[in-house]
Amino acid sequence: MTLTTTRRAPTAPPEGTTVLAPGRRRAHGRGLRTLLWALAVAVPLAFLAVFFAWPVVVMLAKGFVVDGRLDLSGFADVFARPRTWRIVGLTLAQAGLATALSVLLGVPGAYVLHRRSFRGRAAVRALVTVPFVLPTVVVGVAFRSLLVEGGPLGFLHLDGTFAAIVAALVFFNYAVVVRGVGGLWERLDPRAEQAARALGASPWRAFRTVTLPALAPAIASSASLTFLFCATAFGTVLVLGGLQFGTIETEIWVQTTQFLDLRAAAVLSVVQLVVVAGVLTVAGRARTGRERALALGGERQGERPLTLRRTPGTAPGDGHALALGAAAVTAAVVVLLAVPLVNLVVRSLRVGDRWGLDHYAALSDEPAGVTVSVWTAALTSLRVAALATGIALVVGGLVALVLSRRPRRPAARRALSTMDAVVMLPLGVSAVTVGFGFLLSMHEPFGLHVDLRTSPLLVPIAQAVVAVPLVVRGVLPVLRAIDPRLREVAATLGAGEGRVLGTVDWPLVARPVGLAMGLAFAASLGEFGATSFLARPDAPTLPVVIFRLIGRPGPDSYGTALAASVVLAMLTAGVVAVCERLRSARGGLAVGGEW
After folding, report:
1. Which is more confidently placed, 20 or 128?
2. Class of domain 36-310+335-583
3. What secondary structure does DSSP assign to 199-255, as a single string?
4. Fewer CB in 10 Å around end: N or C, the chain?
């Protein structure tokens, strides 16, 4: 029996179809990839150039350009003042100490809230995030009501002290460390630590030699963010420290609004930028020296129930005591975080010498000096924050994707390091500088006959500028931790660039994207600095309304402001709790990115 095979003649392509030779197809594919990566770089840089660099340059020009000529004599004048050096020293001391405490307390919290499971964990995560979103002025008032003579903690005599400011800064930034480090920690493959334990290492030694180095990129990112937030703190320092304990940020505000000295404000803005650039450089080198491909899993790894008693069948030295120690530290911190929030609720319910809901009933009214009710302002805040978060996710996601690449050429690596530092600069620029810069530069910008200062998009864009670094720092450590050989294998098997991103990167980075989204939404919801300059009178956000109510005389206005602050805190806790709930949902793509 003879088998014969017949080869079919190749089918001719349809008439009018252009056929590319294999070499030309490869060249076409490389050209398309180059174009897409160029757009991924150009879009974020263009966004930051138009809505960050240009307003800041315009604001600084008002202080350094006199009669059309560049005048830098303000540097000598400002640095000749002893007050300037004292302000710079206080800024560095407050930010440095608060950052160290936030990291020391936040790492145990990240372990308990992201590697251990227990009933009510989602509620605790939401509670931890609430302080980060509260307006800084409100938190300053809440802290001071705790510490004044006659207050619940008045016996500590901490009102108006350096320790009170540091405690308030830790109160704000604890969530940054917990969520930043926890986003990577919950994805680490526990087998490396288990192997160290099998070889005889104690739980503490296994953590110190295996897990901690793997977490170093996330810790460095969270620490740099915390330092920037502390160094640029405004409302909290202004309320708690007054003129005795100021920062560069509060000094810029004083020079701009009280003395109208734009030259001094411009000099201090440059000083703040230098400090921020130095911090970013140090943090970048720390991350670069320790970043490496990590074993990450698509699902949450190594999560065990948190119990007071050791699980039956486990031997002593299984890390149970270490977990209980981390849980005890976390519980103590959560209680301390809850004290100012509880005090805020209690004060909002106090009406003269009695208890009542009068301040909450007043939220439906339009207070004098405010054109909308608190509920209307709350809806405006939610709408603006959602739009700002969407913009930040697109811009920050592209930045993180570009920065996660590992080019072989030194020039390309230096370019990525520079881009990394530039993207972080919005966190280190004074909100006063950015707000005034928007007002000065958005009237017919670049010669266009349009006044963007009246556009409803200006506030979400300004909030997105601040939220972009949060998205980058939340996603980038995980993207950089992915072994590049996984992408190379997928590409070798014929997967295109988009499919590699969808099948290799996205399953691992989806959950951190959800965490970054929640953090960006929280930051946008409570943003006050730039928004106070840009919000239209007929559409103020909730933090702006709260600030106006606090500034009005009378206990009723103050009580309404506290009630509005409770509403803002509950909105934040509710949004974060929903995100946490959806993160653990099965079936379909949840907000947290779990399939």
Report:
1. 128
2. mainly alpha
3. TT--HHHHIIIIIHHHHHHHHHHHHHHHHHHHHT--HHHHHHHTTTS--HHHHHHII
4. N
